[in-house]
Specification:
With about 270 residues, the chain is of the alpha+beta class. The chain has helices at about 10-20, 35, 65-70, 130-135, 155-160, 175-185, 190-205, 235-245, and strands at about 5-10, 20-25, 50-55, 75-80, 90, 95, 105, 110, 120, 125, 135-140, 145, 155, 165-170, 175, 210-215, 225-230, 260. It has a five-stranded antiparallel β-sheet, covered by helices on one side. The protein has a four-stranded mixed β-sheet with strand order 1-4-17-18. Strands 7-8-15 form a three-stranded antiparallel β-sheet. The longest helix has 16 residues, at about 190-205. The model has no long low-confidence stretch (mean pLDDT about 90).
């Protein structure tokens, strides 16, 4: 299984190890605000506000831009972990989802199983990301078709290409109390009514209050994790990371975990 890399702070790393989850942040809360300002389709739907992402890179080579932007200017860490880290559900031979129910309600969002394939998407760096975003939604009569695979993967080449980013994605349907009640009832007719509500909320660019979703990792996903100390970390930082990584002084369960030092030096 291929390894992927995530630059972050020591405090966030501690939460990952404690909760055994990875946080997906809503796309309009990440650093590239341009991803969410453009509308899509004939109604100008802001579909990117319903996307949640977890950002990684496949590139083993250290990236100074990622150290600076996401790892506290080099005072944080970089984790390396298997790409297949999440708890997922095999729906068919070719499709794994983050969810096992057809609809999963989280706060004021509903996550439909078919719209949430568990895979790592490579970001596409383009000259004009607005041109790509605006075609993600099409209208057929009263219903809205969303090409969710095209959401949250385009960034401007001149600004962001050096990051070499890949992402896991979730796509939510905006919901309200009535739609959630219909979904939870398991009644087929009410399910169709809930879908109509989702569609209406989407077309009206309904705002959701859910800012992030924490997705569970596989039971043993963290057993072989590698932590690279940032180029500006101290010996005290390394001791803190060691205490997070090895909660017991002697424990064979954690023998595969490793701490390595950055090859960069910009103290």
């Amino acid at each position: 299984m291929a390894k992927i890399y995530h630059y972050t702070t020591i405090d966030t790393f501690a939460l990952i190890m404690q909760n055994k989850t990875i946080r997906f942040n809503r796309l309009d809360h990440v650093d590239d605000k341009e991803e969410t300002i453009y509308g899509s389709g004939p109604l100008g739907m802001k579909v990117c506000r319903y996307a949640f992402v977890s950002c990684w890179t496949r590139n083993q080579e250290e990236n100074q831009d990622l150290w600076q932007k996401y790892a506290n200017n080099g005072k944080g860490i970089r984790i390396s972990i298997d790409e297949d880290m999440f708890q997922t559900y095999q729906i068919s031979d070719r499709f794994k989802s983050f969810f096992h129910e057809m609809f999963t309600t989280i706060n004021d969002c509903v996550f439909a199983l078919p719209l949430n394939q568990a895979k790592l998407y490579d970001v596409k760096y383009v000259v004009d990301n607005e041109e790509h975003i605006k075609h993600a939604v099409t209208q057929e009569g009263a219903y809205t078709n969303i090409n969710h695979n095209e959401i949250g993967i385009y960034k401007r080449k001149d600004v962001w290409e050096k990051q070499g980013e890949s992402r896991f994605k979730l796509f939510a349907l905006p919901s309200n109390l009535r739609a959630s009640e219909y979904i939870n009832s398991k009644d087929v007719n009410k399910t169709f009514s809930a879908v109509d509500i989702f569609n209406t909320l989407l077309m009206s660019n309904h705002k959701v209050s859910t800012n992030y979703v924490d997705m569970p990792l596989k039971r043993h996903a963290l057993d072989g994790i590698e932590v690279m100390m940032g180029p500006k970390t101290t010996s005290e930082d390394k001791l803190k990371v060691r205490q997070i990584l090895y909660p017991c002084w002697i424990n064979r369960i954690f023998s595969k975990r490793k701490i390595v030092n950055s090859c960069l030096n910009y103290h």
